[in-house]
Each structure stands twice: as C-alpha cells, then as structure tokens.
Amino acid sequence: MRTLEDVAASLQGYDPQALRADTALEFLHSLVQPVEQSETVPLKAALGRVLAADVVSPIDVPAHDNSAMDGYAFRGELLKAGEALSLDIAGTAFAGKAWSGSVGPTQCLKIMTGAIMPTGLDTVVPQELVALADQRITIPADALRQGDNRRFKGEDLRQGTAALQAGCTLGPAALGLLASLNMAQVPVRRRLRVAFFSTGDEILSLGESAREGAVYDSNRYTLFGLLTRLGAEVLDMGVVRDDPALLEAAFTNAAAQADAIITSGGVSVGEADHTKAVMQKMAGGAGGVAFWKIAMRPGRPMAVGRIGQSMLFGLPGNPVAVMVTFLAFVRPALLQMMGRTPQNTPLLKAHSLEALRKKPGRTEFQRAIVQTGSDGQLQVRTTGQQGSGVLSSMAAANGLLVLHHTQGNVAIGEEVDVLMFDGVI
Ligand code: AMP
Ligand code: MG
User: How far apart are CA 310 and CA 2, in angstroms?
Assistant: First the structure.
C-alpha cells in the first residue's frame, strides 16, 4: 500500500497549497486500492455491480447457424446474376426444433427466424420478397446474395473467448449476455461500505427546530444520493458536534466499519473548529492526511488520508462544493476501490449560449442545463447563481459545464465541455 508521502513524492508539480484538479485526481488514482473480496450473487442482483472475474463463454452463442428472417432457406450458389430463381418447398423448419428432412438440389425450406439452418443451405430469402404459387417460390432477379440472412454459429460469442472482463460494471446488456450463457450466478466484488457525517455546530438535523445562524444539514442527503447511485452501502452517522472527543469517537466508529469515510465541513482555513486537528491525530500524524487547496471552483479545500484501513475524504462544507468535489475526486476514487477498471467519464461538447468569465489557472465547474438546439447541436446555459452554497442552481442543472485549468473566457457560441449527470449520479 502506497503512503501519501510516496505518492506525493512521485507526482510532478505536487503542491498541496495550490493543487491542480488533474494532479489531485492523479494523486488519488495512485493512492487508493480496490477491495479484494468478492461474492457470488444471483444474476438479477448483479445489476450495477463490478464483475470480479473474466467470464469466458462456455458455449457458442448462437449454438447453430440459424435464420435471421422468416423466409425460405436454399443453396445460395443457385443464384445467377440477372435471373429469377424458382424453387419447390420441401417443408417448414420452426425455431427450437431441428428439421430432419432433406432438401433436394432445386428445393428450398420454409424457415422461421432463429430456426437451425440445415447443412448445405446457406442463404435465406425473406418471405416478403418471393412470389408463392403451388408450393413453389420465385425469387426475383438480383434480390439478394449468397449468404444473406444467415446467422453463424458463435457469431455473438465463441466458446472459450472472453465474453466480459473483470472490472466492468454490469449493466442491462451484460445481464442479458450472462443470461445467454446460462449464468445464473455471477462473481462480483463486494460492495463498498462508506460512512459519512457532517461537522459544524451550526448544522441542524432534520426535525430539529430552527435557530438563528443555523442551517439544516443538506450534505448528508446529497451524499446519501451520490453514494447510493454508486451502489455503495451507506452508513449515515449524522451530525457530529465540533468537540474533539465526539469527533474522535465518530472517526473511530467509522474506521471500524467502513472502507471510506466522507466528512463535510471544517477543512477550510481559519476556522475555530477541531475537525482538521482530529483528522490529523486519527490519521497518525501529518503523514496520514493531506490538506489540499485545489485550484478549482467551487470547492477549494479538501482533506485526503487514511484512518486505519479506511480512506478519508474530508470535503468542504458548502453544499455545492460537496457535490462537485465528490464528482471530481471522490467518485473516481470510490469506483477504483470498487474494483472497476479505471476509465475517464466522457465529456460532451456543447455550444455555450452565454459568454463566460473564466480565469486561467483553475478548473471551474458551472451548474448547467444542456439541451439539443433546433439545429440538432448540443447547447448549454448556466443555471444562474453559482455561489458554492446555492444548491437550488445545482438542483436545476442536468450537468456541469467544465472549464479546464488553462482555459480562459468563453465567447457566445464557443464549444465547451459538459459532464452530464445522467449515468453519473
Ligand atoms: P465550512 O467548510 O465548515 O467552513 O462550511 C462552509 C459553509 O458550508 C458554511 O456556511 C456551513 O454552514 C455550510 N455547511 C457546512 N456543513 C453543511 C451541511 N452539512 N449542510 C449544509 N451546509 C453546510
Ligand atoms: Mg464549519
């Protein structure tokens, strides 16, 4: 297991006080490790889980050459350019039953989609193309070529080849694929356990009566949503008062149960609270936790470290900063811990409907609505107030406009990168 110091020393340009967002991501990529354990679950329960071992196809899919159409199977070599072809019907082959008769040299076989192609027949003419009279079909000239409308044995999956690779997330298509291999049980990595709590004396839990200067805890609910969508097992530990003994107890409890601990609040500078000091103590000193100032907006401060065997992600307190730092850093790190093969989240290109002010030298994420314009191209506009505490403009957004580290102002109509929430959260 690599320590924070090892990783820091191996990274070009690592400066915790002014950390580029892409360097922070690289740091985490080098630091975290996938959970080792796996389990076997019934096929339906595997949806959204990470596959723990390669799946090698035990069979050919499909198991036989078969027809892709309802029509008539025949020997394709009989087709002659510029000539119609007439054939007598020898019988009918249905899906699910092998046809046992024989088909003479100038005969064809009526065949249903999915029915096994008898040996020697290699071409299917769809029924709507032929003229039928007295158990005899006529195929018009130049209507098809030899081999048309036949599916080959093993064309989907060949016996002995990899159907799915360990580290993929199992989606609906993968479930179907596994079902086509008769795999009722699937090996998956165990679910990640993630504990989280909010810090700050001004944070109220739901149901508490409002008081001056206090705010209701929204971070635990956005985190609950984000983690649940990732398929993690969540441990909601509530709000922890700004008291060293309570914070220590919370971290101890979380570290005993969880693969990762996520906190919000208390990691920015100049605060009267104890969160940072307790994190440092629990992480076993300065080497166990790094306090970052990331060159990004929103969400500059963030703590990263290990408490016991658990990864620690100390997020800022502002509600939008929590979500953005989660999406930018914590989500990729957790996916890696879940055993997923690392992959970049794809960004789309959209034309900005507004001019945007942007300083080079930091990464900015703006809450945005992306839609298809009347010209069929993607366009994007921001959802108004971009303050890091303004959750309403996050709730109105369907994605984030991503302005990269070196990027400057954006002109109206210019193409920008967007991260869509669909498929991500
Ligand atoms: P901090 O990072 O602790 O300085 O907090 C920054 C801002 O986020 C402050 O205005 C806090 O009141 C607010 N905040 C911190 N935690 C939460 C939370 N769990 N829910 C809503 N707002 C929060
Ligand atoms: Mg605070």
Answer: 13
Domain 39-61+155-189 matching CATH 3.60.15.10: the answer reads no
Q: What's the longest Cα–Cα distance across the chain?
A: 95
Q: Is 268 in the pocket of ligand 1 (CB under 6 A)?
A: yes
Centre of ligand 1 from the C-alpha of residue 240, in Å: 13
Return all residues near 373 (Cβ < 8 A) that are at least 6 apart: 351, 379
Closest ligand 1 atom, residue 301 Cα: 2
Could you say which of 2.170.190.11, 3.40.50.720, 3.30.2130.10, 2.60.40.10 is the CATH number of the domain covering 66-151? 2.170.190.11
Q: How many CB atoms lie within 10 A of CB 123?
A: 24
Atom number, ligand 1, closest to the C-alpha of residue 316: 2
pTM above 0.85, yes or no: yes
Confirm or reject: Cβ of 222 under 6 Å from ligand 1.
Answer: no
Q: Please report which ligand is nearest the Cα atom of 325.
A: 1
Q: Where are the domains of the chain?
A: 4-37+190-337, 39-61+155-189, 66-151, 348-420
pLDDT at 159 over 80: yes
In this prediction, residue 271 carries a pLDDT of 61
Point out the ligand 1 atom lying closest to the alpha carbon of residue 275: 3
pLDDT in tens, 378-398: 999 999 888 998 999 999 999
Query: How far is 102 from 124, CA to CA, in rounded Å?
Result: 16
At 71, the pLDDT band (50, 70, 90 cuts) reads: very high
Query: E strands along 44-202, which residues?
Result: 55-56, 66-67, 71-74, 85-93, 107-111, 123-126, 131-133, 136-139, 150-151, 162-164, 185-189, 193-199
Across the range 170-190, mean pLDDT stands at 97
Q: Whose alpha carbon is nearest atom 20 of ligand 1?
A: 217
Is CATH 3.30.450.20 correct for 4-37+190-337?
Answer: no
